[in-house]
Known about the structure:
Elements: H1 7-18, E1 24-33, H2 35-48, E2 53-68, E3 71-86, E4 93-105, H3 109-122, H4 127-178, E5 180-184, E6 191-195, E7 200-203, E8 209-212, E9 223-224, E10 226-227
Antiparallel strand pairs: 1-2, 2-3, 3-4, 5-6, 5-10, 7-8, 7-9
Amino acid sequence: MRRYVSGAPFVREYVTAHAPQFCTGLAITDNRDRSDADAAINAIYQRYGTMGVTMQIHSGEVSFTCNQQGRGMAGYYFASTLRTQAAGMPGGLWLAQNLCGYLAPRDQAQLAQSIAKHIVETGKPNPQWEKMQSGITMNSSRIAAQTQEAVSNTISDTYWSRQKTMDEISRRRENVTLGTVDVVDPASGRQIQVDNSANYYWMDNRGLIVGTETDTRPNLDFRGLTQLP
């Protein structure tokens, strides 16, 4: 992990670290930002970006000279660094991309430049890689759909929980106003509203409901009803 580095210093760092593997006497002749490239690439990210996610790219280039076995060499590299940040979240992620360049004898620098340009313009992704990416994209879509479903379920659960609470408040208020109480028949699960003049309530097989002051069953035909608070 490291702090974000924009395109120009990143590509300079890249060349400084890797060029000595191929030549000696490295000298940076030019290192600058390429805001013109940024404008075009950032427009693409904005067009296909994800809501709530900011993607910003910064590009840079570096030109240099060095010596390879006594021969003067010329080199050039271009790179972009992409920074991604979610809205409302601190920090973010970044990576380097669009890295391309060349190292060639000085008298062939223009030819190397043309070849590098042609490679960038005509390069195509590996079909197997594209197929793999399609799978990843499909999985991402499924993950997104499942996430939406989970959020929807959470909202629904919250709604029904609140609705249940409101119904319970209304039920209790109504019983206080009417002088009634709700009981439930364990046999059928049916909820019944009865007069609150007794401590215990019973029902027989014919549906007759009686109340008593004690928990003594009126007779064997009656079963106890559960009183709701």
